Amino acid sequence: MSPALGWAAAAALVVGSAAAARLLLSTVTVRGGSMTPALLPGDVLLVLRHRRRARPGRIVVVQRPDRATGWRGPADLSGAAGWYVKRVVAAAGDPVPAWVAGAAAGRPGRVPPGMLVLRGDHPRSEDSKQWGLCPADRMYGVVLLRLRTGGERAAA
C-alpha cells in the first residue's frame, strides 16, 4: 500500500469514527438545581444515546413531561419540550416506591417493562413524585461523565 493511500485510509477511519461518535454521544448542560448536590447548574455532561443502560443509580436525560399530560403524551426526542436530568430509582421488574405518583391508585407492585422511576437528588425536584412512571422511550440517554464543572461549583 502506498503511503498516500495509507494516509487516506487513516483519514477516512478518523472521519467515520467521529461521525459514529456523534450519533452515539452528545453533551448536555445542566440548567437547574434538581440534581444538587451531585450536579450543579452549568455542569456539562457526556451522554450516551442509549436506552438499554438505564439501571437504578444511573443518571439519565429524559424528555421533560408536558404540564398538562405529563409523560402520557407522544414521545418527542427533538429537545423541543426540554430535558430533565434525573437518577433512575427503579427499572422494569423493580418494586414501585410508595412515593411515586399514582402508586396507591392501582399501580402494579413492580415497574412494568418499558417504564422507569426517576428522582432528582434535590428534595424539591420534579420527577416521578409528581409525574409517575416515565416511559423508557422518553429517555434521550445515560450520563457517562461530567466533562466540565459548572460556574457555581467553580466559584465556591
Keywords:
about 160 residues; alpha+beta; 7-stranded antiparallel beta sheet; 7 strands; globular
Terminal Cα separation, in Å?
56 Å
Helix content: 10-25%
The main pleated sheet reads as: 7 strands, antiparallel
The average pLDDT value, as a whole number, equals 83
Describe the structure.
This protein is an alpha+beta fold and 156 residues long. Helices cover 20% and strands 26% of the residues. The chain has a seven-stranded antiparallel β-sheet with strand order 1-2-7-3-4-5-6. The radius of gyration is 19 Å and the shape is globular. Mean pLDDT is 83; it is low at 16-20.
Can I get a quick summary?
The chain contains 3 helices and 7 strands.
Chain-wise SSE layout:
Elements: H1 3-24, E1 25-29, E2 44-48, E3 59-63, E4 83-90, E5 115-119, H2 128-131, E6 134-135, E7 139-148, H3 151-155
Antiparallel strand pairs: 1-2, 2-7, 3-4, 3-7, 4-5, 5-6
